[in-house]
Amino acid sequence: QVQLVESGGGLVQPGGSLRLSCAASGFTFSAYIMHWYRQPPGKERERVARISSIGTETNYADSVKGRFTISRDNAKNTVFLQMNSLKPEDTAVYYCYRAGADPLWGQGTQVTVSS
Fold first, then answer.
1. DSSP labels for 53-97?
2. CA dist 96 to 14, 42, 46, 81, Å?
C-alpha cells in the first residue's frame, strides 16, 4: 500500500523539542524529494522543509531556519523533522509530502506548543 504515516506530534511547552517521523511504504522512497508542510489553525498549509532524495540538500522556511532540521534514512524509508526551540506559532498539523507526478500526503500529526 502506497502511504505516508506521520508520528511524534504532541503537546510541548514553549522552548521545548519534538521529533516527527514519517514512515513511507509502497514506493521507492529513495527516489523522491520529500517535504514537511504544516497547517496552523485557520490558516493555509505552508511548506516547512524539503530534503533531496539522497539527503544532501535541504531547504527551510525562514520561520523555522536554525530551529528545525529535516533528515532522512533511506534504509528505513523514513523522513524526520527535528524541531527545537518551539514557539506557540509553530502550533499546527504537520504533514509529510512526496513531491512528483503523483503527489502523496500523509494524514498529519498535531503539534501544539503551549504552556
1. TTSS-EEE-TTTTTTEEEEEETTTTEEEEEE-S--GGG-EEEEEE
2. 23, 19, 12, 10
Q: Is 6 exposed, middle or buried (0-12, 13-18, 19+ CB in 10 A)?
A: buried
Contact present, 72 and 82 (Cβ < 8 Å): no
* Cα–Cα distance, 90 to 49 (Å, whole number): 13
The Cα–Cα gap between 8 and 112 comes to 12
Q: pLDDT, tens digit, for every residue of 92-113?
A: 999 999 988 899 999 999 999 9
- Residue 94's identity, in one-letter code, is Y
Interval 37-90: pLDDT, tens: 999 999 999 999 999 999 999 999 999 999 999 999 999 999 999 999 999 999
